[in-house]
Amino acid sequence: MLTAELTIILLNVVIALLAYLSVYPTLAGNDFNKIALYDIGTSSIALAIVGYHYWGSDYVFDLLVTEVNWFWFTLATYSAIEIPLMLWYFKKHEVIVSK
What we know:
Helix content is 71%, strand content 4%. It is mainly alpha-helical. It has one domain (4-92). A two-stranded antiparallel ribbon has the order 1-2. Helix 1 packs antiparallel against helix 2 (32-54), helix 1 packs parallel to helix 3 (70-92) and helix 2 (32-54) runs antiparallel to helix 3. 17% of the residues are buried. Keywords: Membrane, Transmembrane, Transmembrane helix.
């Protein structure tokens, strides 16, 4: 059986990979503003799915150096998974951050 932490991490991996390998190239291309807007949506999807399951629970998640609730665990792990993908995507698609 998967632990709650591993389940959330796997969910975040799937959402981030779908976003950066399918959704962003199709809908956003190299437009930083569109990528940022869609990223708010994808991270919100992850938070909504996890929140639906753990909202109101007292379950504590282990974040290596501290224990946090479901919201912070999901947000921190999604960010840690997304940053390398974002850097790769920005380099591959020549995304310009400022104009």
